[in-house]
Amino acid sequence: MSQNQDPKNIDQLIREFSFLKSGVMSKFAMTSKAWQKALLISLVTWLPLAIASLVTNEFFYTSGEITFVKDFEIHVRFLFVVPLFALLQEPMTNYFRAFFKTTQGRLDPDSWPDLADLIKKGQRMISMIWPDILIVIMVYTLAILNWDDAKLVDTGKGYLIDLETGDIRFAGYYYLLVSFPIFQLLIVRWLGRWFMWVYSLVKLSKLPIRIDVANVDLIGGLTYLSFIPFMFSFIFLGFSAVVSVNFGLEIAYHGAKLSDYYFHTIAYILIITSLLYSPLLLFMPKLSKSRFKAIHRMGNFVSDHNRAFENKWINQDQQKDDDILGSADPSSMADLGGSYDPVLNMKAIPINYRIFVTSCGIIFLPFIPLIFTKYSLQQLIEILSKAVMG
């Protein structure tokens, strides 16, 4: 076994893999707890806006439609989504480490160097600083080029802009130049990590991963692949929160109805969840090929076993009544049939449907409060009571 194939070296690469080693905040992230980083980013993006709105007396009262207190979009973005993105780095790191470790166990030692190379490339991809710098330059360039369209006139948020003169307040400048760019940076960074995951799947789908055709999960033992998209569901939970609060603002302040967004919500959930899990379809050829071979091989083996059992216990001319008592042969028949059933029922799509449905539920969660824009709590209780009691 070569040095590159030493499992200790791969184990070290897996242990050192981390999403905390990413971007311009990597040094701070490695020396701070997750909640400290989440709190800091949240305060940097939200607190100055709150203070500025207090100074201009736009915190509770406003010359526009939406006060700072009632601007749920700002609160959701910077008090929920931003810290959520920061807090998810550590659990996502743990899931990726488990993913690489399980994959190592499904590869022959000859393929371990390929896995080690993939882990190194993945870490380099998420550790580079220049994409963050490029994103910041792009964000500010677009802001300058479209400054006239970014004056927030149509938002009705008087704490960001003086609606009478059209002059942007300090809170507006801070939002456009600090808070919103940080929010965009976090979004793009997580999307970059998602593409790193897709890249990893593309490479792994070409490696000789062992398919356990008799595994009870009915997808060749590849259920572990679904856990990474499941974790990314919490990232898109943040996106859903932003989409939901925008729907809510349209309903509350611009005359929209909840029914206007039924189709949009369902389509959004199904499209996002499908995109999350669609990269797993790269393993369909492996599953289909393994199932085809297993059905033929195990089918022949089961037939031979059944024929031998029949010749021994059914077709023999003479047998004692107690010959079969205590024999392991009937148990062998049952065990063999139980092993063959997963092969026959094996699916070509390597997606755990329970995890998939759970992801749909997670992404849907932020849309539930929109129900209260149409029904009061009392009305909902009455509706549920009638549905249950008849």
Q: Would you kindly provide a written description of the structure presented here, covering whatever features stand out?
A:
The protein has helices at residues 7-16, 26-31, 34-55, 72-87, 89-105, 112-127, 130-145, 170-204, 227-253, 262-277, 284-314, 329-344, 353-364, 377-389. It is an all-alpha fold and 390 residues long. It folds into 2 domains: 1-210, no CATH class; 212-315 and 326-376, no CATH class. Helix 3 (34-55) runs antiparallel to helix 4 (72-87), helix 4 (72-87) runs antiparallel to helix 9 (227-253) and helix 9 (227-253) packs antiparallel against helix 10 (262-277). It is flat and about 100 Å long. The N and C termini lie far apart (70 Å). The model has no long low-confidence stretch (mean pLDDT 80).
Please outline the helices and strands.
Blueprint (H helix, E strand, L loop, with lengths): L6 H10 L9 H6 L2 H22 L16 H16 L1 H17 L6 H16 L2 H16 L24 H35 L22 H27 L8 H16 L6 H31 L14 H16 L8 H12 L12 H13 L1
Brief account:
The chain has 390 residues and is an all-alpha fold.
Low-confidence stretches: none
What is the structural class? mainly alpha
Give helix % range: 55-70%
How many distinct beta strands?
Answer: 0
Report the end-to-end length measured between terminal Cα atoms: 70 Å
Relevant terms:
single chain; about 400 residues; mainly alpha; 2 domains; about 65% helix; flat
